[in-house]
UniProtKB/TrEMBL annotation, chains A, B:
Cofactor: pyridoxal 5'-phosphate
Organism field: Proteiniclasticum sediminis
Organism ancestry: Bacteria, Bacillati, Bacillota, Clostridia, Eubacteriales
Recorded family membership: Belongs to the class-IV pyridoxal-phosphate-dependent aminotransferase family.
Protein's recorded name: branched-chain-amino-acid transaminase
Reactions listed under catalytic activity: L-leucine + 2-oxoglutarate = 4-methyl-2-oxopentanoate + L-glutamate; L-valine + 2-oxoglutarate = 3-methyl-2-oxobutanoate + L-glutamate; L-isoleucine + 2-oxoglutarate = (S)-3-methyl-2-oxopentanoate + L-glutamate
Keyword terms: Amino-acid biosynthesis, Aminotransferase, Branched-chain amino acid biosynthesis, Pyridoxal phosphate, Transferase
InterPro entries: Aminotrans_IV, Aminotransferase-like, B_amino_transII, BCAT-like_C, BCAT-like_N, BCAT_family
Enzyme class: transferase
Pathway: Amino-acid biosynthesis; L-valine biosynthesis; L-valine from pyruvate: step 4/4; Amino-acid biosynthesis; L-leucine biosynthesis; L-leucine from 3-methyl-2-oxobutanoate: step 4/4; Amino-acid biosynthesis; L-isoleucine biosynthesis; L-isoleucine from 2-oxobutanoate: step 4/4
GO function term, MF aspect, one: branched-chain-amino-acid transaminase activity
N6-(pyridoxal phosphate)lysine: residues bearing it: K195
Amino acid sequence: MQDIRIERTTQPRQKPDMATVRFGRSFSDHMFLMNYDSKNGWHDARIVPYGPIPMEMASMVFHYAQEIFEGLKAYRTAAGKIQLFRPEENIRRMAQSADRMGMPAVDEDMFLEALKTLIRVDESWVPEMKETSLYIRPFMIATDVALGVHASDSYLFCIITCPVGSYYPEGINPVKILIESEDVRAVRGGTGYAKCGGNYGASIRAGVKATRQGFSQVLWLDGVERKYIEEVGAMNIMFKIEGKIHTPALNGSVLPGVTRKSSIELLRAWGYEVVERQISVEEILEAARDGKLEEVWGTGTAAVITPVGSMTYKDETLVIGGGKIGEVTRRLYDGLTGIQWGTVEDLFHWTVPVSK
Amino acid sequence: MQDIRIERTTQPRQKPDMATVRFGRSFSDHMFLMNYDSKNGWHDARIVPYGPIPMEMASMVFHYAQEIFEGLKAYRTAAGKIQLFRPEENIRRMAQSADRMGMPAVDEDMFLEALKTLIRVDESWVPEMKETSLYIRPFMIATDVALGVHASDSYLFCIITCPVGSYYPEGINPVKILIESEDVRAVRGGTGYAKCGGNYGASIRAGVKATRQGFSQVLWLDGVERKYIEEVGAMNIMFKIEGKIHTPALNGSVLPGVTRKSSIELLRAWGYEVVERQISVEEILEAARDGKLEEVWGTGTAAVITPVGSMTYKDETLVIGGGKIGEVTRRLYDGLTGIQWGTVEDLFHWTVPVSK
Ligand SMILES: Cc1ncc(COP(=O)(O)O)c(C=O)c1O
Ligand SMILES: Cc1ncc(COP(=O)(O)O)c(C=O)c1O
């Protein structure tokens, strides 16, 4: 494995006030960089001060969006230790994204070492306040300076981090979701299961429309029939119907969320039945009308477990659980965050210590 | 309209040898830049030396591919004059792309003025050799320094140019096309009609696979049924069957090509019947087997009119027109390029002079 060269900043950045910090706006002192080209493979692994990099305007990433990313967090436990949550899942997913986008994967051990080393260097940036963490954004961009659509020969892999509070400025209150019936985010055979920029770019217009109408996020339907529920903007979604939990299956157009997977494992360990299957929007509307839809929540690294208070489809709005947080939603939130912040025993061995 | 500030280079770049130049690898001396933010709108229009720009790694474009582009060309006529080909079509399409991606449009007059001014400044970069032109790449990227998926508040609009020869190193020989049956590029409700980076990123893996197998480009099928023909990597496609010309209709997932539109107009003016409709791959295979498929060609700014010599679908390869250039393909190529290089009268008023 390559050594990681470390160049420490001489001008430490101002740390944000964690009570008011906005998600993804304040970056830590350092970033990890590593270059790839087909001749040399991955090389020049280094940690340098966070700051701008000169980019030629003909760089492929600006034109053809050959770009992928990940999102995970480092947590500071009550004992002051720092830990990651299932980083190997993000590392593996990034390799899958790379494959879909014709990009090279990063060696798994190197990736984990890069994460740990960067967080150790920026240890003081892992916040202590309740509900806060260090959001970690690994990403890879195509850097060939060339027009003409092709697989880039050169790439930059980068990890930046930022201390974050709760994803929703309002805290863990139930959110209002708009079921999008026109724009489509992903389709079978497309890039839905990959964490590539294009999926998110395609989703922005619908997000803006939803926000203007007072919704927090958009729920996407499948691209083929526009009938089956896929996922929310930055979360997978789960429904509790008559005591059982239902969630859309990983069909190739849904992102395989780490929080989704962990939630399913936790729920099953607690004795809940969890079904992964195709779920039509009609079925959910029906269950809600009949009073059988007991809870709805989203799962995601940034958003953790987010209760869904209402869902709007075309002209119909369904209020779920009287707009209050449901029992399983709350239990999942406490269970997961408990493991993440080290207040609940990590029976699944999900956490990975960062400190040496 | 804003004034364009011009800062000329003091270190002119080396011009490439036009006999061997690769597409999109040599850039002219200058580029046009203009910034947007929601408070000031578009501002600071300027032409500066081509060169790298410092970019923060948290810039939105690297993560969520909120990025769109265009492609058009400037041609030098035998009389030495420089002209653009239907730039208003590209300007309008870029506004449509911007709308789909939740981005601000560039004022049409400003856009045209930027194109003309930049090409005047880099006049010496418009090549003279036969079959060469100056490829122009306007594009817009999201520049907010913020994670969290949202519509960026700030954007950079940029125009870079490069002298190019023929798109295909082999010249105007019939190309081999692979009909892609697994990966999907675009779907109804998605971003297919927009010229956004994500569409191209999604297409790269299939392109690599096709190239490895000796094909020149991939032909995409629709995302819903994977049955109907949409377009080629960087071209729209046309079929001549028993004297009539057929091309996929603009259904929302196909890029509305300027060369496609111009070809249809030319063909109709010449008395050909052109039908825009849904075309299944089965129908084309059938026509080919029955000897009714007379010609196939692609249309695109970079690739102009490209004869398709063979199409491969799963295990079947169809050779078209004995692998030679068809009569209509040749006539279209000559007709279009004749107008573009000023050797044929521009009856449609498609060209726009750049020289004052
Ligand atoms: C589209 C989408 N779905 C689901 C998720 C949830 O995935 P994870 O739990 O791995 O964060 C995310 C975000 O991370 C996402 O962007
Ligand atoms: C996907 C795609 N289809 C079609 C075209 C042809 O469009 P135009 O004739 O405007 O260049 C292009 C390229 O320009 C393209 O990228």
